[in-house]
Specification:
Blueprint lengths: L7 H13 L5 E7 L11 H5 L4 E6 L9 H9 L4 E5 L8 H11 L10 E7 L5 H9 L17 E6 L2 E5 L11 H10 L9 H15 L1 H8 L9 H11 L11 H13 L11 H32 L11
Parallel strand pairs: 1-2, 1-4, 2-3, 4-6
Antiparallel strand pairs: 5-6
Helix pairs in contact: 6-7, 7-9, 7-10, 9-10
Length: about 325
């Protein structure tokens, strides 16, 4: 299953970013520290035209503390980019953000030359919660659901420091299949766009390999060597009483339990990808996408030839 979700208001957000970026000094992209590669919008670099970027690994208190430093190193090694980790509920995050933006655009930040910052990120990454913490009031609506913010808004964060908030935005085609599952597991994708059971199975497959102790501790299940994600989901459903008639397991209910407890971090602090893993997934996704494009182009060429729109191209070789 390929997970895709790009509702209409995201088209408007893309257009708003394209228009606003002309007067922006620094772009803050909020990432989910549990999936720092999958939550980075590949369309953003194109939209922002190479503006200095601050990557904020949000929800770091939910992520694996042994993996976050590798992701910070990964983003800090990129040109015109700084990366910091953050918990959106922290009481004093404003100074860290302001200082990081000043490091990226040192000539901005006065009343004569104010710092103009655009903050963006995927849905449900904690952006509205962060903004409310920065301003000390409910400047933005929040909720544990993708797509709460629908309109752009301008916020004065400090003297000479202006922040433009944008609605959460994904990208039209997610070519990294694993990213689609990770985004769905994190809550970045609307519920009507994915199957909970499939997402829970993908999540369990990763957790069995990388966080078996977390599963055994939380669900009191035995993970025998070679156990499959399907068997693990059934065992969890049985332990949690998600049982239908004649002893059948309610896999939908079991899946909802696993996804909810990952999001709430009751499974523990977990990160679903390393920089090396994501690079491998991305390369595979790009190769598959290129193959699909070649096939699509061939079909279109055949159609044009059939209707005599173009001459048949010469055979290769």
């Amino acid at each position: 299953m390929a997970i895709q979700w790009f509702p209409g208001h995201m088209h408007l957000t893309k257009k708003a970013i394209s228009e606003r970026i002309k007067e922006i000094d620094v772009v803050i992209e909020l990432l989910d520290a549990r999936l720092p590669g999958s939550s980075a919008n590949p369309m953003l670099a194109e939209l922002t035209g190479g503006k200095p970027a601050l990557k904020v690994l949000n929800k770091q208190d939910l992520a694996d503390p042994t993996r976050t430093p590798a992701w910070l190193d990964y983003y800090n090694s990129q040109p015109a980019t700084r990366a910091i980790e953050l918990d959106a509920s922290a009481t004093t995050p404003a100074r860290r953000l302001i200082d990081a933006c000043h490091a990226l655009a040192p000539t901005r930040g006065s009343m004569v030359k104010p710092m103009r910052v655009l903050i963006c990120g995927i849905p449900n990454v904690g952006k509205s919660t962060l903004i409310n913490t920065l301003t000390g009031k409910r400047a933005a609506k929040t909720g544990d659901e993708a797509g709460i913010t629908k309109l752009e808004q301008r916020i004065v964060l400090a003297d000479g420091f202006y922040l433009w908030d944008t609605p959460g935005m994904l990208w039209p085609r997610i070519i990294v299949a694993k990213s689609g599952y990770n985004l769905a597991a994190s809550g970045a994708i609307g519920r009507n766009a994915f199957n909970e059971e499939e997402v829970a199975l993908e999540l369990l497959d990763y957790l069995i390999s990388h966080y078996p102790a977390a599963l055994q501790t939380r669900y009191k299940v035995e993970l025998a060597p070679g156990i499959t994600d399907e068997q693990a989901l059934e065992a969890i459903g049985r332990k949690r009483g998600a049982v239908l008639g004649k002893g059948r397991i309610n896999l939908q209910k079991a899946a909802e339990i696993v996804i909810h407890e990952f999001r709430a971090a009751t499974l523990g602090r977990i990160t679903l990808e390393t920089p090396e893993e994501f690079a491998h997934w991305l390369a595979a996704g790009q190769l598959l996408d290129a193959e699909r494009q070649v096939k699509k182009d061939r079909i279109e060429t055949d159609r044009l030839v059939r209707f005599k729109k173009i001459p048949r191209p010469p055979r290769e070789g």
